[in-house]
Amino acid sequence: xxxxxxxxxxxxxxxxSILSGQEIIKNLDKNKYEIFPIIIxxxxxxxxxxxxxxxxxxxxxxxxxxxxxxxxxxxxxEMPYSGCNMLTxxxxxxxxxxxxxxxxxxxxxxxxxxxxxxxxxxxxxxxKLGYPMVIKPNNGGSSIGTFIVSNINELKxxxxxxxxxxxxVMLEKxxxxxxxxxxxxxxxxxxxLSIIPKQGxxxxxxxxxxxxxxxxxxxxxxxxxxxxxxIADKCWKIFKCKAYVRIDxxxxxxxxxxxxxxxxxxxxxxxxxPKSAAAFGIDYSTLLDKIIES
Length: 294
Prior knowledge:
Elements: E1 2-8, H1 14-27, E2 34-40, H2 46-49, E3 55-58, H3 69-76, H4 86-93, H5 95-104, E4 112-116, H6 123-126, E5 133-137, E6 147-149, H7 152-162, E7 168-173, E8 178-185, E9 188-189, E10 193-197, H8 204-208, E11 213-217, H9 222-238, E12 244-252, E13 255-262, H10 272-279, H11 284-293
Parallel strand pairs: 1-2, 1-3
Antiparallel strand pairs: 4-7, 5-6, 5-7, 8-9, 8-10, 8-12, 10-11, 12-13
């Protein structure tokens, strides 16, 4: 079976994509698969580079990775690939649309405002969210361009910074609480991980620097564990997810709030999904097999 591992891409998460791709290549079973590393620098390269393959393992993140674009391109040539389909990927990449659907399904999300590049900002309205406040690109990941602000000056500065990564920026009320992530493999919930950054919040540095964050199997009471699992299962079904997805949740005063769904979770050696799978007794190589088989 000829498998191409597609990595690189055009998003701000290119570096993480390459790390994910390298780790996937390292752990794919060489006795089962003929493996072709594919680093892309522009969209127009893809169709030529995947010719003759049997399957594409997507190690892309961000724009032209998780937003449904590459999925649509591969669908157009009937090339099987890992992860969710075009529609699911596109919706889950758009944080505003994800929140709208979750709210309609009575799943708790943080209050927010959306602002678009070029519009006049009403800071009196925006400040009604209250401080601290989270600023993030509406379409993005790996906490790139994400900030926590505590006053008007920081708010103005960080909105400008976030607009460097997307034309639409989300302002979100900061929910103080314990952060968890729920990996789901083919509809089965794997061990919930507790995320405890040693400094600040779970930003880009904390996510990808070894030793900066404690990521351990969560020790939850049965009631809270059940609440989180019910919500995660609903998310999987609502968005018609496929293969593997990671759902980020924060729990404040016993109430779980969904932060986002990751339809192509990071697969570096420090990534959360492989750690959870390992705690479930699934080694990295077997995890990749299961994703491909799905």
